[in-house]
Each structure stands twice: as C-alpha cells, then as structure tokens.
Write a structure and sequence with these properties.
Structural class: mainly beta
Number of helices: 0
CATH class: Mainly Beta
CATH topology: Thrombin, subunit H
Number of domains: 1
CATH architecture: Beta Barrel
Distance between the termini: 5 Å
Shape: globular
C-alpha cells in the first residue's frame, strides 16, 4: 500500500510528517525512514530517506531538500 500526501512540520514532536487532507497520516518521520519525493522538473518519484544534521536540521538524502524546504513537498510512503 502506498500513501501520498504533503510533508509538513509537526511542532508537537519537532519532526516532519506526512499530511493527507490536512490530517497527520504519519505524525513524524525518524532518521532512516524511507520515502519518495516528487521531482516536478523530471516528473518522477525520487527514492530517499529522512536524516538529521547537527542543530536539528532535517533533510532528504540525495536531494536538494532540507530544513524549511521540506514544507509542502509531495511525498509518498510505501507500507
């Protein structure tokens, strides 16, 4: 099963999570969690994983997205 939504910052747990229709489907990703992010330019899904740099900066591995750039990204998770 695949769940698609947008990434949003959850201030209750200081993590980025997956929102579907403004509801938390995943309240917060953890380091090492795998997901896919939609690349608008290439029009394809890019596999990645969530990680954190020093000073609590979240980022997606092998993508240009980090910190507040994660907000609103179209992502999907396979379960």
């Amino acid at each position: 099963m695949t769940t698609t939504g947008i990434m949003g910052y959850n201030s209750d747990n200081d993590r980025y999570g997956l929102l579907v229709m403004d509801l938390w489907e995943i309240e917060g990703f953890h380091c090492g969690d795998t997901l896919e992010v939609w690349d608008r330019d290439k029009e394809q899904w890019i596999p990645t994983r969530m990680e954190m740099r020093w000073k609590n900066v979240w980022y997606l591995v092998d993508t240009p997205y980090s910190g507040t750039d994660l907000e609103g990204l179209k992502v999907r998770v396979r379960r």
